[in-house]
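REVIEWER CHECKLIST
Item 1: Sequence provided? yes
Item 2: Single chain? yes
Item 3: Sequence as submitted:
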Amino acid sequence: MKSPISLLLSAGAALCVIIAAASPALSAPAQLHVQGNQLLDSTGHPVRLRGVNCASMEWSTNGEGHILKTVEVAVRDWHANIIRLPLSQDRWFGKAPDQRDGGASYRALVRRIVDLVSSNNAYIILDLHWSDMGHWGRDIGQHRLPDSNSIVFWQHLAPAYANNPAVLFDLYNEPNHVTWDEWYKGGRLTETDRKSGDTVTYDAVGLPELFRTIRATGAKNVVLAGGINWAFEVGGILRGRELSDPQGYGVVYAVHPYPHRYDHLGLETIPEWSARLQAFADRLPLIVTEFGSLEKSWPFPQSWHTNDEGWNRETLRTLEAHHWNWVAWDMHPYAEPCLITGWDYTPTPSFGVWVKQALEKNQE
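Item 4: Structure as written out by the authors:
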């Protein structure tokens, strides 16, 4: 039989565990919030976020064994003050074919990554990158819009990181081949299963529904919402689709400029897309959460007289000139456009070198 003292100690230990599980890491950056078209820190000053994406958790349960080191290098050696971490709703719940633990180890690894970033006074975007067309474990990957399982994902993840000042939520990566009405309201969509070749029709969910799902959990975290056309087009949000947020810390709209020919927009030069995005940023807060050039996939017109390095350097200069927050893609040697050449984290000469140099400004 335990003594009253031992019982008291046991109760105290249990309480500490509960508090630790529910609270952010002891070391954490300042709480961010949106005011007008600005993202501000807790003192009311505009924040400058510059960072990198760290891919692999969308396709790998253990981040290929490199993810913790990658994030550590990004925040400590490259001085990124924000990390974007792509996630899979299926892996979160252990629905991928290689998982046998219901997602427990995956969720624990995400927790370790969040704590690592927070303890280095940086921010992390938890990004719903891969979904499944409403069928757990089927064709896990990038799809046109989120689905009913995406709601379940945010119902589970958001409370785990609710009101942690280091954590931002990215509703859904790169909505594509959809209209603005579908982006806003959802609807019946049809895609082809990339493994079986079968045609799959599913009930897609609009991004506002995911946003409402997060707020219903009590999580006030800053939320990111990407536009249509692979998150390159955000103008439709200005036509009555802004996400109202009286209960939380606000919404920032995410864009992904790449040198790619987009539906309805064509192949825009950097001055063209930056002018278009500035018109949006004059009214609502904007963050660039992916960018980079891969000319072998998206060849430049000869009239541009540029290459990958030229496009990347001009884009970085443009982002800085407009005072936009940005996160480069990607801190992985195979997730192109790549910032590193291998797992020794040597920066690529056409992209990584220049991103690393730009990140030095975070120390100023």
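Item 5: Key structural point noted by reviewer: The two ends are 59 Å apart (CA to CA).
Item 6: Recommendation: ____
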